[in-house]
Design a protein that fits this description.
By secondary structure, the protein is an alpha+beta fold. It has 4 helices and 9 strands. Strands 1, 2, 3, 4, 5, 6, 7, 8 and 9 form a 9-stranded mixed beta sheet that branches. It is globular, with a radius of gyration of 16 Å. The two termini are 24 Å apart.
Length: 182
């Protein structure tokens, strides 16, 4: 289930529904932005090609994502359930990372974004945006540029891509963050 908070001051309530402080569970989106909370299952022990095809079955065989396959070699069979916080409506990479830091959120990697693409086949319809791009927030250096992994929905197509950080200002971008692991 996707939970979208459209108000300018969006909150993610604590599981026990008690009033909470900023440090606990209440997260407020920056002015004009929106938040979305998703729960995903992350499987880090799979080969990149399998993860890409599950997250973005319409990804072309010659896509740039395959050029970074050495970054995600299978390392085991670890499966994690994670709550992801997605932020939309911020037109600056640095502003998004700064906002996340204020709320104690951590950057995400490719596995997190793959998990979103795999679970939410019609994410773009659920958030009412077409096209939609959900990006990881831990950058990688590829082809002399800082890039991030993303899942891109456009009509009925779902692809995994590498996106230049300089392009992350587009209105369809959702920055993916996760709560700090305890």
């Amino acid at each position: 289930m996707v939970t979208i908070h459209r108000q300018q001051t969006n909150t993610l309530p604590a599981r026990n529904s008690q009033p909470v402080t900023k440090e606990a569970h209440k997260i407020i989106a920056p002015r004009g932005a929106r938040l979305c909370r998703v729960n995903v299952r992350i499987q880090s022990g799979q080969p990149l090609q399998k993860m890409v095809l599950e997250a973005g079955p319409d990804t072309k065989p010659d896509a740039k994502i395959y050029g970074v396959r050495d970054l995600w070699l299978p390392t085991g069979t670890k499966v994690l359930e994670e709550e992801m916080i997605l932020l939309n409506g911020i037109r600056s990479w640095n502003m998004a990372l700064g906002w996340a830091g204020e709320w104690g959120l951590e950057p995400t990697n490719a596995y997190s974004v793959f998990g979103i693409g795999k679970k939410y086949h019609r994410f773009h319809r659920q958030v009412g945006m077409n096209p939609t791009l959900v990006i990881s927030t831990r950058e990688i250096f590829f082809e002399d540029e800082c890039q991030v992994v993303g899942v891109h929905w456009n009509r009925d197509l779902r692809k995994v891509c590498l996106e230049k950080v300089t392009n992350c200002h587009l209105p369809e971008v959702w920055y993916a963050f996760q709560k700090k692991q305890r």
